[in-house]
Amino acid sequence: MNDSYVDKVLIVEGTSDKRKVKRIVKEPVEIICTNGTISITKLDELIDFLEDKDVYILVDADAAGEKLRKQFKREFPQAEHIYIDRAYREVATAPEHHLATVLLGANIDVHTQFLENC
Questions:
Q1: What is the mean pLDDT of residues 65-94?
Q2: Which of 10, 20, 59, 100 could form a disulfide with 65 if both were Cys (CB 3.0 to 4.6 A apart)?
């Protein structure tokens, strides 16, 4: 987690998700990667870190992603959940224009060139 202050934190599953989203997002957003699971210790650390931030959850549209999403709904009920189309299944393989659209829909500023294929 970064020491510099940011208002928005986006939680994703994998490093490939993080890389893809990082290219698309225009504003300063802390992107946290869970690597598909999250331990109780890590979750406790996150609770403290995320206390005064806008939290967004963007996970794959599969069983593992939904399990992680449920865990975050319990622990961070105030978090905004961003959903990709089930047809794409994974954040890392979803088209950039689709990700840009869903991120923009959650009020996360994106680079406009990623919206051009909409």
A1: 94
A2: 59
